[in-house]
């Protein structure tokens, strides 16, 4: 478990699953909108079922689309029926700082046996509280943290220390990747997983000097008549 793909694009998921590089998929409403997934829960179900089956048993995070507490529970229960590998994403609080989400997270994990990925978090302290509530995954949107002038690496290190010290099960997902170097720096800081859009994986693999070196090998092989 190290790299998740932050997309709902079926071709990209197929491509990287085939390489054996990814250990899960994350989505959010913005990603789905970009991919043209529309048509309410029906449209979402149709689009996501392909992804869920393609990567099973690897986990796929799907986000609820309401902030009403009962609505979140109802949606989460519905999403969880779509596949054993569904992880339900719940934001740490509502758009106005509503705190009901914490009880929802706790109820889903403890009463309904649903794995929850708590998202939209910007600090170690938010993630720590979500982990105390019972979350299986805590997503720190580390690129956004950096954009606000805070150091995401330090937040991840603090969070790693807290989760280990209090023996909390939550896995740290570092998200909102902005640069190729984020992957290794966040994993080195203690994240369990970094979720990336497909272009970053290509960026990790391809190197100009490697291209030149490979070309040299091919040229010399040709010269030698191999
Ligand atoms: C993943 O779980 C997050 O929803 C995603 O990485 C957010 O990315 P963004 O900050 O680029 O929108």
Core attributes:
alpha/beta; binds erythose-4-phosphate; globular; 15% strand; TIM Barrel; 8-stranded parallel barrel; 226 residues
Describe this structure in words.
This protein is of the alpha/beta class. The chain has one domain (3-224): TIM Barrel (Alpha-Beta Barrel), CATH 3.20.20. It has 11 helices and 8 strands. It has an 8-stranded parallel beta barrel with strand order 1-2-3-4-5-6-7-8, surrounded by 7 helices. The radius of gyration is 19 Å and the shape is globular. The protein starts with a strand and ends with a helix. Bound molecules: erythose-4-phosphate. Erythose-4-phosphate (E4P) binds next to helix 7.
Q: Which structural class fits the helix and strand makeup?
A: alpha/beta
Strands ordered across the widest β-sheet: 1-2-3-4-5-6-7-8
Oligomer: single chain
Residue share in helices? Answer: 40-55%
Count of DSSP E strands?
Answer: 8
CATH class: Alpha Beta
Strand content: 15-25%
**Radius of gyration, Cα only, in angstroms?**
19 Å
Query: Given the C-alpha coordinates, what overall shape results?
Result: globular
CATH superfamily: Aldolase class I
Ligand catalogue: erythose-4-phosphate
Q: Can you give the mean pLDDT?
A: 97
Q: Tell me about the biggest sheet?
A: 8 strands, parallel, barrel
